Amino acid sequence: MRKSKIKRNNLLFIIVSTTFLSLYSLCILYPMIWSLFSSLKGPLDFLYNPAGLPKEIYGGWQFENYSTALRVLFISVSTAEGGSRAVYYGEMLLNAVIYTAGCTFVSLFSHTVTSYIASRYKTVVSKILYTMVIVVMALPVVGSMPSEVQMTRALGLYDNLFGVCILKGGFATMNFLILYASFKAIPADFSEAAALDGAGHFRILLNIMLPMVRNSILAICLLSAITYWNDYTTVGVFLPSHPTVTFGLYRFQYSYQPESTPPVVLAASLISCLPVLLLFLAFRNKILGAVMMGGLKG
Amino acid sequence: MDKTEKAKKFSSKAKIDKAVFMTILLAFPLLQFFVFYILVNFNSILLAFKSYSGDDQYIWVGFDNFAKVINSFRVDPGMVIMLKNSAIMALFGIAMIFLNCVVTYMIFKKTIGSGFFKVVLFLPSVISPIVLVVIYRSIIQNVLPVIFGVPSIGEWLNAPTAFYTILLLGGLFGFGPAVLVFLGTMSTISESLLEYGKIDGMNSLREFWHIILPQIYPTIISYTVITIATFFTNFGLIFAFFDVSKAEVAIQTLGYHLYVQVYASVNYYIYPEIAATGLLYTALTIPVVFLVKNCMEKFGPRDY
């Protein structure tokens, strides 16, 4: 009797949880699918038929919205001479690629080398590194952005794509802890055997250690790339003349150009998120695994 | 050279090699940390006591900026509204932590399609908030009124409901990473503990309350601490939903107010006030964070 009651309760749990998760999925997937179909509508179709598929009576499927988005998606930025210039999608895409690749590389380098030293070398420096990370993560610092702007201006890094990559090269984040744990888990036998064979520190790091944590590094690399591609708050403040695709989209939706109809703005949105979406779908297991690993280190 | 001397020479060479290796590797990260954390925060503290006098020059004004900031909460009702909104956002964030635990438990129990749900849950974290805002704004303003036949739904993004609409959307999008982190923690729970619960006749609810929650409690503490630590900086999706500085005061949080001041400031005269504001907020946040952490650790559930 008791067993059947538990079985009934567990069945009820499965029904409730499946229903809840299904409703949540609907809230996420329906807007995505809707935006795909709506990006192929004309402006009148969007206005009078917002919930349905494109209708012939309003012009049917407008695939040219995507080429229009690439053509008209531009924002005005100030120049050093005091004027303004238009930045189009191609330049924004190039800025996004440089910003994403640069910040990901610099950030990953900092995290990797510091976590490696902290985990594999029993020195005072290692203890200091680890403590620094914990202290920085624990202490919430507010309102330092004006000082950051001043510092980047003074160093000539402001409004400079490569300069802002240096700004993002900090190592005191959760990624340090994930890599620290990954390096720490490697048995000492490997590095000792390599040292006996005459391998130096660089050789041990590059030929033995890094290959052994490549899954963690790849996952962090992917997560970082997605974060930097989608970043608009840093770009807005530190790269006013070099907008990326994401920030360009933010400004574009408020630009009120004649051709920036809602379907065209939706098309521009979907174009901008396509690279990270493809990256996520291709490497979803590694990305989800890395995020879950964050829970172990929490 | 005898064996002892050779060993000593080898040992000192090894130490030098190690020192050179560590120096080369750590040069950039430590320099970056020194400049963009130590120097930046030191400069920020100094800036808080200065005032802009023109031509990139600042003069020392003592605690004037702090007095201005504290006074602004007395004379400007907008600041009080922003403080209220920040508090609501933080409380909502803490409530979401518990909901995240429940949802994670559903996936942990291998509900039908849990693999699919994991991917869908994380999807909003992959897509830029700007893209999500463009899509969901259109859905709220154009589609929902037609589907449900209630035109007023389209007004949800106007005051006075805009703040709560944006808050709920932020909760909807923010599920993913938290669920996955909790899932990672739940995956470390010993199978024997769960078996023991089953033998004891625990249903899902009792298993969640008596076994799962205590085991994932450290992660709950981490998330609660992060939510409180971002009390004064969090602005969720507010910036993404509105053109710069066009969000009404009723929708703003203190974090939004701070960010927009830096974003939109062409002149640097306002920087000292922002620095003073940040310093005040930091001084308020740090003790609260440590207090909450200590209380949660002291009064929370023990391991089963």
In a nutshell, what does this entry contain?
The complex is a heterodimer of chains A (298) and B (304). With 298 residues, chain A is mostly helical.
Question: What report would you give on this structure?
Answer:
The complex is a heterodimer of chains A (298) and B (304). With 298 residues, chain A is mostly helical. Chain A is 72% helix and 3% strand. Chain A has 15 helices and 2 strands. Chain A has helices spanning 2-38, 43-48, 64-72, 89-120, 124-138, 145-154, 161-167, 174-184, 188-196, 201-212, 214-230, 233-238, 245-252, 262-282, 284-297, and strands at 74-78, 84-88. In chain A, strands 1-2 form a two-stranded antiparallel sheet. In chain A, a hairpin with a 5-residue loop joins β1 and β2 (84-88). In chain A, α4 (89-120) packs antiparallel against α11 (214-230) and α11 crosses α15 (284-297). The longest helix of chain A has 37 residues, at 2-38. Chain A is globular, with a radius of gyration of 25 Å. The model of chain A has no long low-confidence stretch (mean pLDDT 89). With 304 residues, chain B is mainly alpha-helical. In chain B, 74% of the residues lie in helices and 3% in strands. Chain B contains 12 helices and 2 strands; from the N terminus they run αββααααααααααα. Chain B has helices spanning 3-47, 64-75, 77-108, 114-126, 129-148, 162-173, 175-186, 191-199, 204-229, 238-241, 254-264, 271-299; strands spanning 50-54, 57-60. Chain B has a two-stranded antiparallel ribbon. In chain B, a hairpin with a 2-residue loop joins β1 (50-54) and β2. In chain B, α9 (204-229) packs antiparallel against α12 (271-299). The longest helix of chain B has 45 residues, at 3-47. Chain B is globular, with a radius of gyration of 26 Å. In chain B, 36% of the residues are buried. The mean pLDDT of chain B is 87. Chains A and B meet through α1, α4, α5, α6 and α11 of A and α1, α3, α4, α5 and α7 of B.
